[in-house]
Fold this sequence. Notes:
CATH class: Alpha Beta
Mean pLDDT: 89
CATH superfamily: Nucleoside Triphosphate Pyrophosphohydrolase
Number of helices: 3
CATH topology: Nucleoside Triphosphate Pyrophosphohydrolase
Number of strands: 9
Order of helices and strands: EEEEHEEEEEHH
Distance between the termini: 56 Å
Largest sheet: 7 strands, mixed
Radius of gyration: 17 Å
Number of domains: 1
Structural class: alpha+beta
Shape: globular
CATH architecture: Alpha-Beta Complex
Amino acid sequence: QDKKKKKKPKKLRRAVGLVVTDPKTQRILMLSSRKREGKFVLPRADCGEDEPFEQTAQRILLHEACVQTLTPAHRIGVFVEANKKGKTIAHHCMYQVDCHKELLPPPDDHRQRVWVTFEEAQHYTEDRNMSHVAL
């Protein structure tokens, strides 16, 4: 008997990205990329199991961006990622928030945080479609 193994359907990936701006200078916070040396990216992370997008955004603000804010994050939009067959494989929710106060990063965090102009942010995200569109 030749039984075909059924593949378990992959879980839909859920991620959150942030456009953190400094209202005084109109600059945008970017982090050094973990995967691509010399590149900068917007703060982002995958959602935890059953973690709401808004809760993930708060976690990213504190742990990735290391900023405090007085205003809630404003949802820019949800971007859908599909595979080559057109099947939805991910939802990426993008938020915008104004920085109120920078916090010290944890001692074991080696990512560089830089505040860049809108034009620089556009340049850094040229090959990152969702981040580029969110800006």
